[in-house]
UniProtKB/TrEMBL annotation:
Main localization, broad class: membrane
Organism field: Agromyces ramosus
Name of the featured protein: Multicomponent Na+:H+ antiporter subunit E
Compartment(s): Cell membrane
Superkingdom of origin: Bacteria
């Protein structure tokens, strides 16, 4: 006999996976460029097969979505892409510019596979930075950053990455994750006001 709490937990897991299944079905329909019973049904079968049959780490959605924070995330992404595109374009045509790039390790504040993936994608979309590796066990992103000549440049890149993660968490992370990134933000601001040095080490918090 199945325990009621176990049954509830299973249904809750299925419910939290529904947005992912719907997104996969929608992607399948877009690929076929037509909405028919066959494409929708085959998309549903494929989505279930991908999420159930293939060996993948479980990706559970938080069940929380903040439209206002999501709007701010989208607007900030557009702003960052625009500004970074102009900066890279200027560097590309400036004959005096000498390339000075770095591979930087950034410790994320969460261990969510979904948040890590979205953060990596958001960073890579912005010209001048690209994620080259992810340490899923430790929550580390390794990224190649353009134009990092000074220690201040490295701090800026780390700050931008953590800011991107924070906006993603506030838009669609769990309440616990949102509380964690808010606390980390308060700590960073307190250190900045006190003039304390910013901690950064391999696997440490920037």
């Amino acid at each position: 006999m199945t325990h009621p709490s176990a049954e509830f937990s299973r249904w809750r897991s299925v419910w939290r996976q529904l947005p992912l299944l719907a997104a996969l079905v929608l992607l399948w329909v877009f690929l076929w460029d037509q909405v028919t019973v066959l494409t929708v049904v085959s998309g549903m079968v494929l989505a279930i097969a991908v999420t159930r049959a293939l060996y993948l780490p479980p990706v559970l959605l938080s069940g929380r979505f903040n439209p206002w924070r999501a709007l701010l995330l989208g607007l900030r992404m557009m702003f960052d892409v625009t500004v970074a595109s102009l900066q890279v374009a200027v560097l590309a045509i400036d004959p005096r510019w000498q390339p000075m790039n770095s591979i930087i390790a950034v410790q994320l504040l969460t261990r969510s596979d979904l948040v890590t993936t979205l953060t990596a994608e958001a960073i890579t979309v912005v010209p001048g930075t690209v994620v080259v590796d992810i340490d899923r066990e430790r929550g580390l992103l390794y990224l190649h950053a353009l134009g990092t000549r000074t220690e201040a440049d490295l701090h800026r890149v780390r700050r931008d990455v953590l800011g991107t993660e924070e906006r993603i968490v506030l838009a669609m992370g769990t309440r616990e994750q949102a509380a964690s990134v808010r606390e980390a933000r308060r700590e960073r601001r307190a250190r900045a006001r006190s003039g304390a040095p910013i901690e950064h080490q391999d696997g440490g918090r920037p």
